[in-house]
Amino acid sequence: MSLIDDLDELEARARGMIEGADGTDALERARVALLGRKGEITSVMHMMGKVAPEERPVLGKRANELRRLAESMIERRGKDLRREALSSLMATEAVDVTLPGARPKLGHQHLISQIIEEIEDVFCGIGYTVESGPQVETSWCNFTALNAPMDHPSRSARDSFYIVDNAPGSVDHPEEHAHGESDVLLRTQTSGVQVRTMLANKPPIYMIAPGTVYRPDTADACHLPQFNQVEGLVVDRGITFGDLKGTLDYFVKCMFGEERKTRYRPHFFPFTEPSCEVDVSCGVCHGEGCAFCKHSGWIEILGCGMVDPNVLVNCGIDPDEYSGFAFGAGVERIAALRYDLPDLRSLMTGDMRFLEQF
Predict the structure, then answer these.
(1) Fewer CB atoms inside 10 Å of the end CB: C or N, the chain?
(2) DSSP strand pairing (129-130 vs 205-214)
(3) Measured between alpha carbons, how far is 135 from 212 in angstroms, rounded to an integer?
(4) Is the pLDDT score of 178 beyond 50?
């Protein structure tokens, strides 16, 4: 049998393999068997170098015709198979256009995002600006500029997530160079945004700084290692504690209702003097005392105070000319108090049955 006869036989076999393919998988197997790297037609093409020179033109022409024929048959059979599959799909899964359409389910903002925007609306309505800053902060902005002593417990690795310890070139301000501080950490508070705002702007300053903060706390009903905070700062001439109290009383009534009362208890923070913790009257018992407020009638909501003069000096502001107040509140805590949530972790689980209530 001559090589031409072999090619004729291979053509007949190729037609049977391609036309007999009953699906795209079978057609692909036929393509590989014929035209793949080790396919029959490919092997014939590779044999041309061993054929006598006088026979090459005829055999080469016949082999090329066979290859083109196989390629066109595979393409045509593939189109037929796809057309048959589509017809079958339309016959078995036809759509009744007279049926009512499926209404898409609309999403909405997370409760925490809603509350942050509501807080921003409250303060923007009385002339404040919304500022932001880096979540990876230097120890100078996070601690030192805020009058925190070097031995303050909040600086320890047990209370802060340090990223770089004394890394050269990681500081952002000349003041950091002057104090020789270049530790880098995940910010434990958004107070660093207050520092950066005072360094970049001259008073008067009326601002809030919402953002995510990080502390190495074990997640439980009252604590999260990552949570959101909103801090506020006012620096201007003639600012008094009365301005602070009036502002926070207004904020509490906007967030919790006109009937809610506030109570100011003396406290200590390195960056404010005098300092206070603010309580809001319990919304469950209306101040009468219940299990939710531990029978006190009050629930702690935020910390505040008059800006310590040392903080103003650290940020290049004359404390003899300007005074100010600052405050900070946890957004998750506000959500828990507003909606009587027993466990902060429920805000982080992503359980739509819970989140869709808000």
Answers:
(1) N
(2) parallel
(3) 7
(4) no
